[in-house]
Amino acid sequence: MTDVQSNEAASRPLLVNGEALRLDVIAPQGGGGDKHEPQTIEQAREILLPQVTATAEAVAQMPQGLRAKDRVYVEAKLLPNYLAASYFPGELLAHVGASPVGSRADVGRYVTKSKSVEAQTRRLIFTVTDDGLSRLQQLIANGGGNRTEQQAFSQIKELDEISLPRESDVLKAPDPSETNAQSSTRKIWEAVLHPRASRNGLPEPLDEETLALWFSLIAEEEGVVYRDYIRHVGGLTFMPVSLDAVQTGALARFNPLRVLRPMPAIRPRPRFGARSGQRLASPAVNQPVLSDISVAVFDGGVDTARASGNLFSIPTHDITPVPPNQGDLDHGTGVTGAVLYGLAGPGEQARTPPLPVESYRVLPAPHVPDDLEGYWVLDQIREKVENNGHRLVNLSLGPTLAVEDDMEPNRWTSELDQLAWEKDVLFVVAAGNDGEQDRQTGLHRVQVPADMVNGLAVGACDVPAPVRPWERAPYSSVGPGRHGARVQPLGVQFGGSESRMFNVVSADGSFLEASGTSFAAPVTTHALADLVTRLPRVNSSVLRAFAVHFAERPWMHRKLRDEVGYGRHPLSFEELLNCAPHEAHVLYVDEIERSELLGYQVPVVSPVKAKTKLQITLAYASPVDPTQPTEYTSASLELSLRPHHRRHSFTAPAGLDEKSRTLDFTSDEARNLMAQGWKLSQEPVNKSLSAGNKPGSSEAQLRDSGKWETVRHHRVTLNPDEVEDPRLEVSYVARRAGALDNSPTKIPFALLISVVDESKQADVYNAVRAKFGPLRPAQRAQTRLRTRGTSMTSHWY
């Protein structure tokens, strides 16, 4: 054995190239029984006809200044039984010439043969002409005269309500009647307007003619529109409006308006404690380990005037023309220091930075009106990330806005999610420090944009790994997040606590004391930057998969999921990349097309003599649709584990009242059943990875179990007789505007699978290496130079 082979055997590196273990698989035949219909068409007609008649009458009386010239916006609430994209009432909308432009979250009655419970659903938002509304009224009243009409008419049973938008959904503010003139104050509101229409499934922004009506209405109420800050995201129009609170009710009547809400300010920075006398020494080598991938930090800048040594010899950009504020500089310097060096302490020497880091000073924002600094800061982030090619971005700032149950679209989240998808950028975002705020109002929940579905939200815990016990820092904001990212934050990192403050490095190497998710996030950013240098190739999905897969689960982790996500992040992945003899970690990186089914060998070597634990993490990026808060992610990758290639399901022949059985199809019992007419399943039996994947699960259960989440994590323990030549299948379903989407789209994804012998007796790692030849040990990336002003991403998938 050579020295290289000997060292490799001793270290047992994580194995890559798992995608080479792909198998040819055949999609199983569709199944399922009859769906329970919660109401008949006649019952739906009785409910809906008075509603659509009242809606048509209200539209006829609506002033022209409160509506678009050629159409109105109408909402239809779906029964929770029909949440799946396959039930979208497309024929009904097409018959009346309606164009779907979004949805809202709502609740309704989920009805089965045995129960009726309140469940989450959504209100479809569509535009329709006055004539189209009349056709809808006639269809509901008279039924269908031909096949096309009958098919459209049959879909009314999916609906529970038809109406114009409700003011309570549009206006997110105290009741204007409760606000008197003396307490009324003028402030900035954020108005979000619906798309004009949806063409080929893509929403188009509101037309200029309708916008002119909106501007006139604001002027009538003595309001001001900040037109320089009007932005379009996913067909929605976002704009700031200065207005007295007592006038908001008049604006809320504007039919194309989706929501009017107070404009949030930028989050306040944490307070700092005393400065430490001992300092952090400059790194022995200041040149980053890898130079072709860069990290961006958007914050209060770096205090270069006080810098000493080479601690902060990095590119710094003053984006804001406003002179620096010392508090912002201290915060920005501390965040940047944690990105560069991780968790450092007084008297230590800084480590070599893993990747180049660039600091962008965006605080204080320029002297823009009132609370518009959030719009300005977001513009700078988007522009610099798009143009400068950064692949890893730390955000320890954001609006003071907690994610809400109504999940109305937010510009920060929507723009950054779309940017993350288009540019394959990973935003590491501080979850927020409002965990001790009022739970009844939801102010304790993660703050925008920590609700990103394509990002990595980081909360704070009270001690760093590997110190135990640990728990969430009380101030750390909690979940759940929005649909597509209900598990938020994804994990926690040390951010300081009353008993153990975070050492915030200053530009001269001294330390301040503070606590906050602002500092937890950059420690995780540093760990991920270091991980980039230790793998042959990475992308944003790989980094998110590692952050979740190797998070340390707390005791009673399911109960604490909303508090700490998948667990505590490591300070470094270096040791975790080496496998113990009884385990093997394997990375798969691949892409999948819509409606494709991919199969992969799971690296288990037979015969298995002890219980085997499989740990499986899937991460992918998804296109997003901000007009559809409950359908925000457009892609769903589903996992199916078939642990034993010979164990199939056997179904009794018709007329024989017996339950199905699971047997080894080569066994004598199986042969006897087949001789008696029992039917063998096409594929080996599937092992459920989550509760919602069980046969007969409702769409709501599937969503709760993560059907549309962009990160999944499962742990399965199998007995020796349950596992042999296992395989994992990945399938892809797409949706657009709430309906199934048949257009071709490729989704890149990363899978991490750990195979662990629970007895710790078997040499799993070497057995996997011997049997699965395509797998190879991960090798550290070779140093590559990054040319200033360009992005060289040969190390990025």
TrEMBL record:
Biased composition (Polar residues): 684-700
Keywords: Hydrolase, Protease, Serine protease
One Gene Ontology MF term: serine-type endopeptidase activity
Chain residue ranges for the region called Disordered: 684-708
Pfam families, sorted: Peptidase_S8
GO terms, biological process: proteolysis
Ranges where the Peptidase S8/S53 domain occurs: 292-567
Organism domain of life: Bacteria
InterPro entries tied to this protein: Peptidase_S8/S53_dom, Peptidase_S8/S53_dom_sf, Peptidase_S8_subtilisin-like, Y4bN_pept_dom
Active-site residues per Swiss-Prot or TrEMBL entry: 299, 331, 518
Family statement: Belongs to the peptidase S8 family.
Name under which the protein is recorded: S8 family serine peptidase
Taxonomy of the source species: Bacteria, Bacillati, Actinomycetota, Actinomycetes, Micrococcales
